[in-house]
Amino acid sequence: MILEGSISVKAAILGNRRKVKELYIDEKRRDKESAFIMAKAAEAGIPIRRMPRHAIDAAASGKTHGGILCEADGRIYDDPSVLFSSENPFLVVLEGVEDPFNLGYVIRALYSGGCTGLVINSRSWESADSVILKSSAGAYDYLPIVMSEDPAALIKACRRRQIHAFAAMRKDAKPCYEADFRGPILLAIGGEMRGLSTAVLNECDENIYIPYANDFRNALNAAGASAVLGFEVLRQRRYQGGGSTDGAN
């Protein structure tokens, strides 16, 4: 597949979660960003080809590539053991998100908030790989992501390791700002249409909800909820004396 733009190409090279076969750069481009990308590509042994802009344009499907493309394989997903490698885990189980743009936005929000591992249902995203990478601003290749046929079983395994599991579910829930996110946690977040499965809900320790400023009762989309909850975790850990929020690389 062809990945387009400096953000996606840089993430593909630095994230080390896919094989990058060749880097294509506009022969007239001379700037720090392209120099950095070429240096990292050279370190990784990736062939670099300088090309005229019309050839870059012909190879690209969009118009916002900025003269930088790469040919790469699909993303390699992580082994479940990565979920337990952080000193103070902040894990997320995501269900019911089918649109690649939305998935990318969720990943972008979670990675920015310090999530150390994401679990998604098993399915093939390869045809949408470049869309997810671009909409996530590269976070798709930085954040550890595990595919699972049975996310409820993974939650159970997390709880055995003393990771407290919260479900983003309004019924019988407490406000998210009253929950303690400073220790090892897992958040289960569902898409706005289907929400979380019964199997996942049954494995969670307690439910939380996001309070609104008015009586509006329609759910936030998954990206919005991920941003609110992710940054509440970050706020508590950084400003309320919690454990460190590990980087995801």
Task: Describe it.
The chain has 249 residues and is an alpha/beta fold. Helices cover 34% and strands 21% of the residues. It has 8 helices and 11 strands. β6, α5 and β7 (145-148) form a beta-alpha-beta unit. α1 (6-15) packs parallel to α2 (32-43), α4 crosses α5 and α4 packs parallel to α8. It starts with a strand and ends in a 10-residue tail after the last helix.
Question: How do the helices and strands line up, and which of them pair or pack?
Answer:
Blueprint: E1 2-4, H1 6-15, E2 20-26, H2 32-43, E3 48-51, H3 53-59, E4 68-72, E5 90-95, H4 100-113, E6 117-121, H5 129-135, E7 145-148, H6 151-160, E8 164-168, E9 173-175, E10 185-190, H7 198-203, E11 206-209, H8 222-239
Parallel strand pairs: 2-3, 5-6, 5-10, 6-7, 8-10, 8-11, 9-11
Antiparallel strand pairs: 1-4, 2-4
Helix pairs in contact: 1-2, 4-5, 4-8
